[in-house]
């Protein structure tokens, strides 16, 4: 039974990666929505973020990414613009590196603008030729004094054109 289950898992991953090859080709577009910041971070309370990104594959497996995002962790609300690169390493495994410009509003303490870096390690599970689910590990590194680096989980959907 264990061998059958292992064979089924390997088959799903292999079939998923065959579907991915055409979607990751130069000249293709991608549209991605994410739920992010389900995190272990500098704020101990509940936090959540949403982002929307678009991408253009300038070469096989190499998209240029641009997006917007919003995050909430009581009492902080943040809005961000993101720009960066992604790279699909092996099968559906990918890395994203993005620069982020954030407008942060802290209830009762005012607001500020800050820069940061976002690093993502994820795996694209292709459900069809053009649709993937993307679970990921997210590292957010702010450049402002007093804020700490956070590590979180996220999941999204990507549509490839």
Describe the fold and architecture.
The chain has one helix at 2-23; strands at 29-40, 48-59, 62-73, 76-90, 93-106, 110-123, 125-126, 131-142, 150-160. The protein has 161 residues and is mostly beta strands. The chain has a single domain, classed as Porin, CATH 2.40.160. The N and C termini lie far apart (39 Å).
Short description:
By secondary structure, the protein is mainly beta. The chain contains 1 helix and 9 strands, in the order H-E-E-E-E-E-E-E-E-E.
Main attributes of the structure:
161 residues, 9 strands, 14% helix, 65% strand
Our measurement of the CA-to-CA distance between the termini, rounded to an integer number of angstroms, reads 39 Å
Q: What is the helix/strand order?
A: HEEEEEEEEE
Mean pLDDT: 82
The number of distinct structural domains comes to 1
Q: Give the number of DSSP strands.
A: 9
Spatial sequence of strands, sheet with the most strands: 1-2-3-4-5-6-8-9
Low-confidence runs (pLDDT<50, min 5 residues)?
Answer: none
- Looking at CATH, which topology would you report? Porin
Helices and strands in order:
Layout (H helix, E strand, L loop, with lengths): L1 H22 L5 E12 L7 E12 L2 E12 L2 E15 L2 E14 L3 E14 L1 E2 L4 E12 L7 E11 L1
Antiparallel strand pairs: 1-2, 1-9, 2-3, 3-4, 4-5, 5-6, 6-8, 7-8, 8-9
